[in-house]
Specification:
ArsR-like_HTH (chains A, B); transcription (chains A, B); DNA-binding transcription factor activity (chains A, B); alpha+beta; 5 helices; Arc Repressor Mutant, subunit A; 102 residues; 14% strand; WH_DNA-bd_sf (chains A, B); ArsR family transcriptional regulator (chains A, B); homodimer; three-stranded antiparallel β-sheet; DNA-binding
Chain lengths: 102, 102
DNA sequence: ATTATATATGAGCATATGTTCATATGTATG
DNA sequence: CATACATATGAACATATGCTCATATATAAT
């Protein structure tokens, strides 16, 4: 194929794709997103279930929040997080399926 | 949900999912895989089209090879690479679609 | 055999990323 | 208002990652 016949991706597109996959590439975030895909959770619950520090969970949630992959609602002192991007959850579940059935 | 009612992912599954997404998370590898999804390419061609050094391309191809995402055939001194994992290409294309249509 | 071409690979370096620790913020309650 | 509880955040540190540079390997041609 000639150089000029290639269909190139816009660099903005590449950056966005990279961003999506980067977020899905960390085992901790995979666990958090998978957990949140099953149920709405507060921060301490996530930390307990995944056996992580509250701080580590909170840092990761902040990343997921910034990318609008999760949302939250407050109930008193407690924040309940849930998934906010069906498409990303779909990518995650496909990869899980693929990984499980090898 | 009670602790014991969660459906947990096997740690092996999590590692495999992470591996898939890590490989897709790098802009250079995104470009290479997208290019190879369009046509079989030799190493120098990839380097020219993507304006990268031969060495950088070769290092990335080595990563893709190790994960069996690409295969190659030899023709004289030249190696022709192509995609070898339709599922990963499918994940990539879905993410591109999503990123483009925001 | 020598040389040229195509590709691979190891070492070193700079940057990115995830965790911990300490501390700050926000909300309810006495 | 003081205290407790839930969560967030900044700094520091360790590890991972991708590039470059130099060099090695493989194949072909002279």
């Amino acid at each position: 194929m000639k150089m000029e016949d290639h269909s190139f991706l816009k660099s903005e597109t590449i950056e966005n794709v990279s961003r999506i996959f980067k977020v899905l590439a960390d085992p901790t975030r995979i666990k958090i997103l998978y957990l949140l895909s099953q149920e709405e959770c507060n921060v301490n619950h996530i930390a307990e279930v995944l056996e992580m520090s509250q701080s580590a969970v909170s840092h990761q949630l902040s990343i997921l929040r910034n990318l609008r992959l999760v949302k939250y609602r407050r109930e008193g002192k407690t924040l309940f997080y849930s998934c906010d991007d069906e498409h990303v959850i779909s990518l995650l579940k496909q990869a899980i399926d693929h990984a499980e059935h090898h």
